[in-house]
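Consider this pair:
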Amino acid sequence: MITDLGYKIIARHNNSLTPKAGVRLLLALAGIVLVVGISFARIGAWLVLPFAGLEILAFAYAFHYIYLHSSDFESITIGNDSVVVEKRDYKEVTTTVFQRHWAQVSLREVASVGGVIGRNGLFIRSHGKEIEFGKHYMNDEQRALLARELKQKLKNID
């Protein structure tokens, strides 16, 4: 008898920029923008300064948005009797549970809108519920590889 002790896969963004490094980069960009803006203001083009300020605000907002979403992820956990798909988007966490015996994995073409990376979507479904996995975190090749692996894991039922 083969006992399956579980399986978990987590998909997330590559967060190579730490918050501290992000602040440093933002300060460096703001410094460059201010030097250029003040230089133009000194030669008489003072209207450049308000736009330089708006540019700094836009950079600050972008870095803040990246920081807020740095811990977003999607995960699939396969236990003895269940398949749990968990998604975190900023503060919102959704959990969908499927019965392992009835869960089906499919890979099919989707329209390329809404941040989809690639053309294929990886779907898990059972009893009228369906959820897409890896929409923002994986490319087509990774989805195909994961679909094969998930199908194999779902076949190995005690």
Observations:
- The mean pLDDT is 90.
- The first strand starts at residue 7 and ends at 12.
